[in-house]
């Protein structure tokens, strides 16, 4: 356990940040899961809407420091790549 007042404060801050980060990370996972389901469908408008929603959430999380800006950029790039990919092409025989 911390002995100094500053150590106690750091413990409180770390706990508060951990709880907040977990909430944000869970929200991002849920949004990406919804997007994955939308990408499986055929409605192009729904796909682009969900991609935009997830990209905005990633930008917001990166700007507030919940995730690194490079991670947000990487995830956004992968989402755009999935959106542009042709619908599941039938396997060639």
TrEMBL record:
The keyword Cell membrane does not apply. Residues 1-24 are annotated as: Disordered. Gene3D superfamilies: Ribosomal protein S20 (1.20.58.110). Keywords: Ribonucleoprotein, Ribosomal protein, RNA-binding, rRNA-binding. Belongs to the bacterial ribosomal protein bS20 family. GO terms for molecular function: small ribosomal subunit rRNA binding; structural constituent of ribosome. InterPro entries: Ribosomal_bS20 (IPR002583), Ribosomal_bS20_sf (IPR036510). Pfam families: Ribosomal_S20p. The gene is rpsT. This is Small ribosomal subunit protein bS20. Binds directly to 16S ribosomal RNA. GO terms for biological process: translation. Residues 1-14 have a biased composition (Basic and acidic residues). GO terms for cellular component: cytosol; small ribosomal subunit. SUPFAM superfamilies: Ribosomal protein S20 (SSF46992). It comes from the Bacteria.
